[in-house]
Design goal:
Blueprint: H1 6-27, E1 31-43, H2 53-66, E2 75-79, E3 93-103, E4 115-123, H3 136-146, E5 152-159, E6 171-180, H4 182-186
Antiparallel strand pairs: 1-3, 1-4, 2-3, 4-6, 5-6
Length: 191
């Protein structure tokens, strides 16, 4: 009968650690991508939280940047501002022009400048405080209307959002999104 020695245990641990590192490196492999333009209109419709036009515009801008929209050409313009700026309005909205990363493929136009990109996990949900609890309806609408405009994978979504009730931790939205690789981002804006 063979005994399990300390040296075999260390060898097993080193082997497991190397395997884990290999898996992590596989996730960090670069993806060749390019910037693609997107335009859309988004109107918030919720019962629990009310937004002013500039408040919604700021929140949507933050979400778009978190999801990987290119900052240099991101335009978020408030719409539906019936009560003016700084005051809650029934159906605030935004018109958005932006660029997002898409993996290169056979349909990519000739001459497109490739950009090294990596997957990054992001959490669209705000910190789980009572003040952020009203965001659950907005987060649901972001998942349905805005997230599909980005290249994503491993989407994790959970919602116990109840209209007219503040539910701390009521909604979670996380996803892996394509972002410029650190070396590509340090090289400066592309496209």
């Amino acid at each position: 009968m063979e005994t399990f020695s300390a040296s075999r245990g260390r060898a097993l641990m080193v082997g497991l650690a190397l395997a884990a590192c290999g898996a992590a490196l596989a996730d960090e492999a670069t993806v060749q991508a390019s910037w693609a333009p997107r335009e859309f209109r988004f109107t918030y419709q919720g019962f629990t939280a009310r937004y002013s036009c500039d408040g919604l515009s700021d929140r949507v801008r933050a979400v778009l940047l978190l999801l990987g929209a290119r900052k240099q050409d991101l335009q978020v313009t408030p719409t539906g501002c019936s009560n003016g700026f700084g005051r809650a309005t029934p159906f605030p909205g935004v018109a958005v022009k932006m660029s997002v990363l898409e993996p290169l493929n056979a349909a990519t136009p000739q001459g497109t400048e490739p950009l090294a990109s990596v997957w990054r996990n992001v959490d669209v949900s705000r910190p789980q405080s009572l003040a952020a609890a009203g965001d659950c309806e907005l987060t649901e609408q972001v998942k349905a209307s805005i997230l599909p405009l980005f290249t994503t994978r491993a989407i994790e979504y959970r919602s116990t959002c109840v209209p007219h009730q503040l539910t701390p931790g009521g909604t979670t939205l996380k996803a892996d999104v394509l972002v410029p690789a650190p070396a590509a981002a340090a090289a400066g804006p592309a496209g």
